[in-house]
Amino acid sequence: MRATIYVIPGSTSSMAGRLMLEHKGISYRRRDLVAVVSRPILRLVGFDGNTVPAIKLDGERLQGTTTISRALDELVPEPPLFPTNPERRTAVERAEAWGDEVLQPVPRRLAWAALSRDRSGVRSFIEGAHLGIPTGLAARTSAPMIARAKRIYGVTDDVVRADLEALPGMLGRVDELIGQGVIGGAERNAADYQIATCVRLLLVFDDLREAIEGRPAGSLAHDVVPDFPGRVPPAFPADWLIGAS
Question: Is the pTM of the predicted complex or chain greater than 0.70?
Answer without folding.
Answer: yes
